[in-house]
Amino acid sequence: MTEKHIDEATGVATTGHEWDGIRELNNPLPRWWVWTFYITIVWALAYTVAYPAWPMLSSATTGLLGYSSRADVKAELVAAEAAKGQYVEAVAAKSVDEIIKDDTLRQFAIAAGAAAFKVNCVQCHGSGAQGSVGYPNLNDDDWVWGGSIDQIYQTVTHGIRFAEDGDTRISDMPAFGEIIDATQIAQVSAYVASLSGGAVADQAMVEPGKTVFTDNCAACHGDDGKGNRELGAPNLTDAIWLRGEGESAIAAQVKAPKHGVMPAWGGRLGDTKVKELAIYVHSLGGGE
Amino acid sequence: MLNDAEVERLDAEAVNSAKVRQPLYAARKKIFPKRASGNFRRFKWLVMAITLGIYYLTPWLRWDRGPYAPDQAVLIDLANRRFYFFPIEIWPQEFYFVAGLLVMAGIGLFLITSTVGRAWCGYTCPQTVWVDLFLVVERAVEGDRNARMKLDAGPWTANKIGKRIVKHAIWLAIAVATGGAWIFYFADAPSLLRDFATGNAAPVAYITVAVLTATTYTFGGLMREQVCIYMCPWPRIQAAMLDEHSLTVTYNDWRGEPRSRHAKKAAAAGQAVGDCVDCNACVAVCPMGIDIRDGQQLECITCALCIDACDAVMDKVGRERGLISYATLNDYNANMAIATSGGTSTVDPRKVRGADGKMSHGLAHFHIRKIFRPRTFVYMGAWSLAGLALLYALLTRDRLEVNVLHDRNPQFVTLSDGSIRNGYTVKLLNMIPEPRTIIVTMQGLRGGEMTVTGIDQPADRSVAIQAEPDRLKTIKVFVRQPAEFIDGEAQTFKFVVEDKASFERDEYVATFNAPGKTK
Questions:
Q1: How large is the angle between the packed helices B189-198 and B158-183, nearest 10 degrees?
Q2: pLDDT confidence of B25, banded at 50, 70, 90?
Q3: A103 touches chain B (CB under 8 A)
Q4: What pLDDT shows up at residue B518?
Q5: What mean pLDDT value characterizes chain B?
Q6: Model pLDDT, residue B388
Q7: What is the mean pLDDT of residues B92-98?
């Protein structure tokens, strides 16, 4: 275009671009817009100097202000730790009994314990602490080793059948498959099932089963079958079955008992965390 | 009869005239509105005093709510998520009251606009009010229109610099006060003022004041009419809101045209002469820089100052007031038809006057009855309905509420005696600024009993909870039902919460889960 084309209707110059007779008007941008645009360019350049921006071979430029999002996170974590510091110190200094009586401390311990539980315990006990076959449900009121806060604290600290801890809780039910015969196992299973009012296939087995029980089992589980927490012998008269209910599940456990192992958490997590965990577990509804 | 010699003619040009095609970008031409006086100006002073008074003074009003709540009458307590308005306290979940008020404001704006046009723009819009305030300052410092124009065109003498400094200093002071008043709505005003003055207030307070100072100073002092013309959407929306029955500031050219500066001479020559003496008073007072005689236009905020200016001139020349007036398009068209013999001729103002020179009786005038028409009835109805619904909701709303979350993991727990236990997180909302005892009771679920974590009492069907004033109280409830009463996988029962003192109650229907097959 040698000379400028002026649009007749608007009196505005066109850019010279034309498509099917339609021309593009060349209206100037508002001054404030243009200046804002220039300022954003200057801003962007200054920003890349002030903040980490340009990728180099091994890392990026660090920027004059020395900002880093990692440092931010670090600072926030330090602040968060500092914010709960007084509570953590109190939990560390006091006994679980004292903590549980202090409303604020108890709530702090439950929240902290819930978090630790979700990292360390859910793999076996489940995310709701509901357990499964072989792994105890921690919500209920049936405790093999006792459900008071001190007993739970002791269990979490030293574990169960955990060889590396000298104070660990140990109970070892013999494999009765090698001691009594199959008939006796069937009989004692029927008797044990009947203790909690469970279904028994052959009622005639119950009476002889009682004799087998008295001879072989009562030493740990008690004459009445209510168990013994000192020995870690479960209560057989209640509705809760760690390894499944019914005669066949009982028979399997009598014949070749399975023994769960829980690590000692005291050495791994430290005393404070274990206190928090114990208080959390105690709060789930079954605590004594 | 036409004393046009006495009328001061102003050399005013409508800088935002609709007649001149504006380039898409042009530097602003300054406007120097002349001081107007008259009924509308007085009304606008009154509206300004009321609206500014409400804005500046409201945070300082006190309202006693007892020892457990702030005593500021209007307070938006963002930190604690409470909104106080005199006796009313609103929790976040009750924000629908604010939404309802916004709905009412919207419909109200429709109603006002369909009846009296852009009254919001002309009288109560903060932009209009603050520009008016800033113009008062400008006039006080620099003088009225002519003095200001002279000063603006003149060289930068010490006098001019001094006046400008004084003007901008006062503007800035007003701007700071405006931004300052805003923050007092969000915290206890007296203590915030003390903290603010001593440098102890939160950074957000200083930032808010700084931003609002900048916007007030820029919009009210520097940009003025440009905010309305370029930035505000309302002038665009109003086109859809106005109809032929809406009152709007109108130049009645059916009696004004043909305008003449030499009316006597023209009349003597037997020519048609309108009432408009072309004195430009209406243009000179216009804060928007338009000529109302061009007709209705986007820039016009209907502040009616041109009516005051024109009425004063009409009084001087001995004509009836109302050459510029609030009129509806219908009335205007009817009168125009008379003046133009139904559109067959150009405007001849002699046709709207009788033989005695008085306005003829056939002319259409505004009457209050004209406001009442189906459209405004619908708006009024919708507005009243929204208002009544809000009032009903406000009067019947609960100040004691319960929300219940059933534990999902585990859904239920079998206990050693075979009974089933479910866990619930129960949230008690004590929404008054008083501590109270709330009785939580179970209804239904045969044989069921509950215990509350942290409350040392044996399982029961009812438990008393101490709730702090104006707070949410969360408790953990374990409900236990003996095996023999369990009736299905999911049973429903009620948590009933009661305040025995005030007889308020609320209830929540909860579900009790049990294993699918029972022995």
A1: 130
A2: low
A3: yes
A4: 46
A5: 89
A6: 97
A7: 91
Cβ contact B416–A127 (<8 Å): no
The 10 Å Cβ neighbour count of residue A64 is 10
Structure tokens at B462: 């009812």
Would an 8 Å CB–CB cutoff place A128 in contact with chain B?
yes
Q: Which of these, A149, A148, A172, A176, lies nearest to A160 by C-alpha position?
A: A172
pLDDT beyond 50 at A1 = no
- The reply to whether A197 touches chain B by the CB within 8 Å rule is yes
Under a CB-based contact definition with an 8 Å cutoff, are residues B254 and B359 in contact?
no
The label of the residue with tokens 């001691």 reads A179
* Integer Cα distance of B97 and A242 in angstroms: 55
Q: Which of B488, B479, B475 is nearest to B443 (CA)?
A: B479
* DSSP strand pairing (A22-25 vs A14-19): antiparallel
- Residue B361's pLDDT is 79
Full 3-state SS string of B113-178 = HHHHCCHHHHHHCHHHHHHHHHHHHHHHHHCCHHHHHHHHHCCCCHHHHHHHHHHHHHHHHHHHHH
Of the listed ranges A198-202, B21-25, B227-231, the one predicted with least confidence: B21-25
How many CB atoms sit inside 10 A of residue A129's CB? Answer: 25
All residues of chain B having their beta carbon less than 8 Å from the beta carbon of residue A29 are: 25
A26 touches chain B (CB under 8 A): no
A140 to chain B: which residues are within 8 Å by CB? 413-416, 421
pLDDT higher than 80, residue B3: no
Cα distances from A89 to residues A86, A150, A270, B142, B398, in angstroms, run 5, 20, 13, 69, 42
- Tell me, yes or no, if A32 comes closer than 8 A to chain B by beta carbon: no
CB contact under 8 A, A235 and B409: no
d(CA A38, CA B507): 62
User: Span B305-323, mean pLDDT?
Assistant: 91
Report residue A10's pLDDT band, with 50, 70 and 90 as the boundaries: confident
Query: pLDDT by residue (tens digit) across B341-397?
Result: 887 888 888 888 877 778 887 788 888 888 888 999 999 999 999 999 999 999 999
Residue of A nearest to B26 (CA): A30
* The residue to which tokens 């440098």 are assigned: B199
Collect all residues with Cβ–Cβ distance below 8 Å to B369 and sequence separation of at least 6: none
The residues, ordered by sequence, that sit 6+ positions from B479 with a Cβ below 8 Å of its Cβ are B421, B422, B423, B424, B442, B445, B448, B449, B450, B512
**Residue A87: half-sphere exposure toward Cβ, Cα within 13 Å:** 20
A30 and B CB contact within 8 Å: yes
pLDDT tens-digit readout, A34-79: 999 999 999 999 999 999 999 999 988 888 998 999 999 999 999 9
| Chain A residues inside the 8 Å CB shell of B414 | 137, 140, 239-240
CA dihedral sign, ordered A237, A243, A249, A255: negative
**pLDDT by residue (tens digit) across B474-504?**
999 999 999 999 988 999 999 999 999 999 9
For residue A6, the SS3 value is: strand
**SS3 letters across B288-337:** CCCCHHHCCCCCCCCCCHHHHHHHHHHHHHCCCCCCEEEECHHHHHHHHH
DSSP string, B504-517: EEEEEEEEEE--SS
Eight-state DSSP code of residue B9:
P
Chain B residues whose beta carbon lies within 8 Å of the beta carbon of residue A238 = 416-418
**pLDDT band for position B309 (cuts 50, 70, 90):** very high
Residues of B with CB under 8 A from a CB of A: 24-25, 407-410, 413-418, 421, 423, 453-454, 476, 478, 483, 519
Strand partners, B245: none
* CA separation for the pair B370, B361 (Å, rounded): 18
Q: Distance from B412 to chain A by nearest Cα, in Å?
A: 9
Residues of A whose CB is below 8 A from B25: 27-31
